[in-house]
Write a structure and sequence with these properties.
Blueprint: E1 13-15, E2 27-28, E3 40-45, E4 48-52, H1 61-71, E5 76-77, H2 80-86, H3 89-98, E6 107-109, E7 117-121, E8 132-134, H4 137-147, E9 155-159, E10 165-172, H5 181-194, E11 198-206, E12 209-216, H6 225-236
Parallel strand pairs: 4-5
Antiparallel strand pairs: 1-2, 1-3, 3-4, 6-9, 7-8, 7-9, 10-11, 11-12
């Protein structure tokens, strides 16, 4: 059975968002409660602990929660290495490519190149969710000035060809809604590689083909009603038939 469709063996816990997360400080999640912004949920599946969060970035509370669980010897997903790799675009694409997933061309630069292009910052404070699609050289220069802190840091450039479309897709435990078999297969492969329960995948789409552009954090409020229902199913312990 594909792990993305495996049963949840026990109800999740919710990390209170008003204090520092601790391996011993959790609260039961009522099945009827809505997804709370900023909340982190712990789901036990097949002997492993899955951490569901809106943001796994370095130095977030979720990152330190994962790290603390690893230090106690628990098998926790995503692991700390995967969340670091996932949100650094060139590293993410290299790892995804090695897993057999088609990826976008990625140029690391400190000067403006071809447009149109998808641009990502690579500095310490940048987040992959802050990407921009530049259609003109003037707009590209303004974006680059911002994401490089006026030239102090490099950036990632992904050139676009005529007809390319940038597509944003939310994945819940490797499952997506409303897309075909090919993209669903890639979502499952990304979940197998990074084990991130909730993630936004940015794809470059053209002529029926998809290339991964990046992985980014996902707000619960950004999910569609069907995606929220899917996530609640995983959190509640219901079975997939």
């Amino acid at each position: 059975m594909n792990d993305s469709q495996a049963d949840i063996s026990s109800p999740p816990e919710e990390i209170p968002d008003h204090r520092w997360p601790s391996p011993c400080t959790t609260a039961d999640l009522k099945q009827s409660s809505r997804l709370r912004s900023g909340a982190t949920y712990l789901v036990h599946r097949n002997g492993s602990l899955y951490v569901v969060s809106e943001n796994y970035s370095y130095k977030t509370e979720t990152y330190y929660l994962i790290l603390s669980r690893e230090l106690t010897g628990e098998r926790v997903y995503p692991d700390s290495r995967s969340v670091l790799d996932a949100y650094v675009v060139p590293v993410c694409l290299d790892r995804a490519s090695r897993a057999g997933i088609p990826v976008a061309d990625c140029i690391i630069s400190q000067s403006c190149g071809k447009v149109p292009a998808v641009l990502y910052g690579l500095n310490y404070f940048s987040c992959s969710s802050g990407y921009a699609v530049a259609q003109s050289m003037d707009s590209a220069k303004e974006v680059i000035r911002h994401i490089t802190n006026s030239g102090k840091y490099p950036f990632c450039c992904q050139p676009l060809q005529e007809g390319d479309e940038v597509v944003k897709v939310h994945a819940v435990f490797g499952r997506i809604e409303g897309y075909g078999k090919e993209l669903s297969g890639y979502a499952e492969m990304l979940f197998s590689e990074f084990r991130i329960p909730l993630v936004t995948m940015i794809w470059i789409h053209a002529d029926g083909q998809y290339r991964l552009s990046s992985l980014t954090p996902t707000r619960y409020t950004a999910l569609s009603p069907r995606e929220k229902s899917l996530l609640r199913i995983y959190l509640s312990g219901q079975e997939f038939l």
